[in-house]
Design brief:
single chain; 191 residues; four-stranded antiparallel beta sheet; mainly beta
Length: 191
């Protein structure tokens, strides 16, 4: 193995955490920077896609949640599969009946339309009135499905693409107290 290139944060900042997560497929890599400052919001987070041509890697425009805010941690997890990218946002805050709940979490899905990566949908934790769940801590795309974990409460869900929507098709709760053990996951084919 020999180094081919060094990819650097196109928008560097001290707490950006560029490279905290990444996924590589073919000539594309997506890199998360969950601590990135975006439009003055600290730890709002961002993700970057680089395309390779020969031995040259070119950065595309950065991705971030246009409705995001400070401490959303967009890019805490990333997954790339074909023309889709899933990006975890475990710090996403929701408002229910006038009450704000932090770190409920979300996952943003982007689609490559042949020219650029465009936002398709945001999957928000359906259990949004309990703070601190960290939904989106891990995201894994597998063909037309995305697995999303909520590691603080030990559950994961699978959402299956239906056109441009991604309805939930499976919920799995790990037995036992919520201890934060579901920190990472892997998925290959149907396992």
């Amino acid at each position: 193995w020999f180094p081919e290139a060094k990819l650097v944060d196109p928008f560097p900042n001290a707490q950006g955490s560029f490279g905290a997560t990444l996924d590589l497929q073919g000539s594309k890599v997506v890199i998360g920077a969950p601590g990135a400052t975006v439009n003055g919001d600290v730890y709002r987070g961002a993700a970057y896609v680089f395309n390779r041509s020969g031995h040259v890697w070119t950065a595309l425009p950065r991705l971030y949640d246009s409705g995001g805010s400070s401490f959303y941690n967009f890019g805490a997890s990333v997954s790339l599969d074909g023309n889709y990218i899933a990006i975890g946002e475990p710090g996403h805050t929701t408002s229910v009946n006038g009450n704000n709940y932090g770190y409920v979490g979300a996952c943003c899905i982007y689609f490559f339309n042949g020219a650029s990566w465009t936002f398709q949908t945001k999957i928000v934790n359906p259990y949004n009135s309990t703070p601190g769940q960290d939904f989106g801590s891990t995201v894994i795309l597998n063909q037309d499905k995305v697995l999303i974990t909520a590691h603080s409460v030990n559950f994961f869900e699978i959402y299956t693409r239906n056109g441009v929507t991604w309805p939930m098709t499976q919920h799995m709760q790990l037995i036992g107290p919520p201890t934060g053990y579901l920190v990472s996951a892997a998925w290959q084919n149907d396992v």
